Records
---
Amino acid sequence: MIKNIYDSIIIGASAGGISAAIYLKRNNLNFLIIAKDIGGEMALSGIIENYPGFPVTNGVELTRKFKEHMEKYKIQPLNEKVILLEKDNSNFLVKTENNVYLTKTVIVATGSTPKKLNVPGEEKFFHKGVSYCSVCDLPLFQNKVVAIVGGGNSANEAGIMGSKICKKVYIINKNPEMKGDKILIEELKAKQNVEIIYNALTQEIYGYQFVEGIKYLDKSTNEIKDLKVDGVFIHIGLKPNSNFIPDEWGVKNEYGEIIINQLGQTKINGLFAAGDVTNIPHKQIGIAVGQGIISALEVARYLSTKG
Amino acid sequence: MIKNIYDSIIIGASAGGISAAIYLKRNNLNFLIIAKDIGGEMALSGIIENYPGFPVTNGVELTRKFKEHMEKYKIQPLNEKVILLEKDNSNFLVKTENNVYLTKTVIVATGSTPKKLNVPGEEKFFHKGVSYCSVCDLPLFQNKVVAIVGGGNSANEAGIMGSKICKKVYIINKNPEMKGDKILIEELKAKQNVEIIYNALTQEIYGYQFVEGIKYLDKSTNEIKDLKVDGVFIHIGLKPNSNFIPDEWGVKNEYGEIIINQLGQTKINGLFAAGDVTNIPHKQIGIAVGQGIISALEVARYLSTKG
């Protein structure tokens, strides 16, 4: 039934997966890149000032550049969702909703997805004032009031961006201080129209047809407080997209991240990983790129030694 | 005598070092970046088609982009040559030809330098027809005849570039086949004006005021052969720039490469490395970038846990 065996299948087409694909192609390997979208979290990033070589860009623009790079090599991602990875002797079966593919190696570069608050109104008002993508949606809130929920770099970046667009930006942070790059935190705190609320647990997002406000528990006073806002941006962390890898394989840590060494290898021969889905504690585009390249070159080496 | 202690000193200002510097700056750390040049081997690269996000660029152009990125953050490399690294309790002394700097951490990103053939005429005709930088110097050889000595990716790339500029390109390869990316090798072999000479050991580069020819030993016939060429480009490998690190520290392998783990750590606390100077077998700009970023973020973490 399965006629073709691939040299490699890359799962995911964001920074890590695209970088791996470019290198597999340059090595003339027979591979697929399967992804449910292009750019992943990169595409949802706001202003990007830390991908070396691009002094200033943004997620949409940088994704376009990566896509252009892929198209130059005539690499066309397959738009399918991978649901299960299985072993088949020394090979792998990659199962999507409609197909099964056989391959000698796999590079997992599926990234991670934004965590949900799981509060009333979050789902109801999604795309009606609730967003997980500041760069996509903040420009819709010119001179409006928004709340950004979170306390790390994504929240910092969203806050800085929002300060330039919106009339007022609240940062709702459950912790007693902001985390992330100090330079960003200082920039955020210097903004006149940004107000950081600490020790604040979001309880509810409410409205009628569109978001009208947000309620939070002030942990220092134990009071429920209410802010009138037009939009809510949620930046509370990321969950690795690794569910399709069986837990029994023992390649994931307690957070679901894939454990790799400096060559992108997992403890299963032929299974590699790169980018935000791995246990490298820093989730950065430039790191995903480096790991995607290493994985691809290690795939090439693995295949040539395997014969 | 030494008044100041830095959080970190980055040695080297090419892809890895500049990436590290951008991230240290974003973390508001007090650091120096010391380098004898900017861009290192990256600046000497020909056409670059594998730094993700830049479908086509070249070494000069990409170095300019990295420099621009660094200048945006007001990072100014110190133009000195590091001659020795010493330990000073838990800190490090970085000794240059004229100064000594004290620092809590060090990121070594010094890259590697081209290997010499060590044949008569190589030194005499340097910059008079002999070059280690195809992208800088091939354009000077419009409609001329050049020899490229080497058998790997750099030689492949130089050959392809040369085929578009020169009348004739010889590749002088001591091995019986070309190594490196198959896609490049195929492209090179398809060029009408490129002739690959295998099993050929370069003996001498000769001329009067300028290169006029090259002699090699044909290992299959044991004859010395002579080619009339106007230029010789040498691409026979790289030597890691790690001499200033004491061998007794045991952080280098037999090739002089610095041994790192996936977090850029060496076995000495506070000493990190990134890029071509490390033992990662693949020497690529995108990999150096990823490792530079990881090292910088690990420096930040090391300093915050060290207090």
Note: Chain B touches chain A through 46 residues (CB under 8 Å).
---
Amino acid sequence: MNLDDVRAAARVLDGVAHRTPVMTSRTLGDGVFLKCESFQRGGAFKFRGAYNFLSSLDEEERARGVCAISSGNHAQAVALSARELGIRAAILMPEDAPPAKLAAVDGYGAEIETYDRYSMPQVQAGREFAERRQMTFVTAYDDPRIAAGAGTAALELLEDAGELDLLLVPVGGGGLMAGCATVIKALHPGARVIGVEASGVVKRSLEAGERIQIPVPRHIADGQMLTQPGEWTFEVMRELVDDVVLCSDDEILAAMAFLFDRLKLVTEPSGAIATAALLAGHVRPEGARTGVLISGGNVGLERFVGLMG
Amino acid sequence: MNLDDVRAAARVLDGVAHRTPVMTSRTLGDGVFLKCESFQRGGAFKFRGAYNFLSSLDEEERARGVCAISSGNHAQAVALSARELGIRAAILMPEDAPPAKLAAVDGYGAEIETYDRYSMPQVQAGREFAERRQMTFVTAYDDPRIAAGAGTAALELLEDAGELDLLLVPVGGGGLMAGCATVIKALHPGARVIGVEASGVVKRSLEAGERIQIPVPRHIADGQMLTQPGEWTFEVMRELVDDVVLCSDDEILAAMAFLFDRLKLVTEPSGAIATAALLAGHVRPEGARTGVLISGGNVGLERFVGLMG
């Protein structure tokens, strides 16, 4: 996957995905630009990749319908993209996924099955689900079409903010990171790309030089529940990611509160984590023109009040 | 005041005020456009009018400094505008104003005095404060420069959304309404303009044909605590406003929850009230291209959690 693939995805998404706003905050610094994918359709960047993936399917694949496994945002993205393209969708979701996310997927007309995410690795559960359903499986991250779609967020950010020296990206499976890193390293080769995560699985994998496996993590960033980085995305990240930093639950909550009060932004925990890295001082831009990906806002009012109360 | 005054204000504000995003929601309807002044500097539309007013002052007026009385958003707007223009500011605020608003005004470097808003009409308290301080008084709404600044929000909305048949505007003192109604009636004379309020003082005044006075209302829309419409704004509203509808606290809270969950927007009660009028069915667009002003987002996390919990 290269910059041309991302540009092709941008053409597929033109007029379908929202061009989300870029916000600034003097408190964060004069050269800090927040790309607000919380305002993306489906409430997160995931729509970009899912729609790009589904658009690439041939007639036979579309006719079989699509299925996916996801803790929430990818589920919504696949359900919404499938509805837009007139494709049948079935989604396997963890039974403890936030109710707001379950309700949204249902609202987009997809069929839902639930499973216990603490009893079976996601990859295995997804594979079994796809075999049983005989539908086209839509990976949440480990595919160049998904990453190219996600990378269009970085393309727009650079168009709106101008040249950047530093880009902070929430990292789970690595689809958003693979797409965004590909874009910025192609356009501004000197820029640093830093991933931000809650569990440390990506950081430790990069340090080890191979994908490590961890137990299902228990932190508040439900968008980053992976036990292992993606296979293909890991190779991209090894090549393009300069560093990965970790944020604690308290740091994430502080960032969500800051974004609510000061920027009037609704974020979910994984959506606020790159901002948390700045606020907590894990990354110090020191004058660098800095892009920050706010990856999603699907926290749900009830959970937000619970987290903040 | 006419469209040219609003266009002149737009030139004054160019590069100083944010051009706030316009959002859409399929749930609200295909032709509904939300102008999100919650993302304006200072967290509300008020910055537009205050900055335009302060920019019009002569050297002597600037040297004396400026003062204002406000429950919050106008206070922040005057404090922020004064800081930008290098003018000294003192603000009289109700002692029960939301803590987030008091803190923000303090943060902008203005001096704060507090008073009991249930013991003295705001107009009287403001007059006494201005006399005592011998500073230039900045009215929150009852001045063409304030209204012309506020009207730039409607100008931008029409540029981004195209022609509108209907415009819903939160109405308190009437500055935002006077500015926005002037713009849309000049550009699209057939469009209907509807005010939305919590207390009914504007509706009853328009029905009576004169400004009535009510006791300080006790509802959650702290941005609409006025006991009487403005003198000048009332004359503008008599001429240009087609109707005024009321929303209850519960309807406002439902709109705040909807905007949080579905549009990822942080709104304060008076900021959500025009959306509440749509959701509660007090206004039925029935296919009309509809603009909705979201006037502000300064609710503060703690108060939001309290209201929603």
Note: The two ends of chain B are 44 Å apart (CA to CA).
